[in-house]
Write a structure and sequence with these properties.
This protein has 146 residues and is mainly α. It has three domains: 26 residues, no CATH class; 41 residues; 67 residues, Herpes Virus-1. It has five helices and three strands; from the N terminus they run ααααββαβ. The chain has a three-stranded antiparallel beta sheet, covered by helices on one side. The N and C termini lie far apart (82 Å).
Length: 146
Amino acid sequence: MNFLLFLHNGKYPTLLQRFLSLSQESTRKRNIEYTFMTRELLWHGFSELLMFSLPLINYQSVKHKINRLINSKSKHEDKKWVDKIPLMSARIVCSICHDKPVLPHHIKCSHVFCFYCISSMRMVDEQFECPECDHFEKKIIPVILN
């Protein structure tokens, strides 16, 4: 009961202080600094901005553009991978997830992709190019199994 009265009035935090009518009053004015509060509000606002904006960013497209800037040598000059039909073997891995391909497909280059990987990349970025050789092809073709 004393706790509820304390929350309502703000006086007498303990039962003993209530019986003795002892109230706590400050003898000098407190100097309140808001630097901590300001910092917390800024970080909270910044984190909310990131939580809102990060899902809107197309990471694959950004990653592809950064890789293009870093690798200034154009891989397009090296056409040895293009128009080679890939054949499945035990050593083949998906060029996107680097696991054994599930439902292997290709885009008219010799690199193999999982159907899910290449389809999801195409949904995210219609201009998706092979991450190994930068070859672009709209058509996704199943790989012939040996």
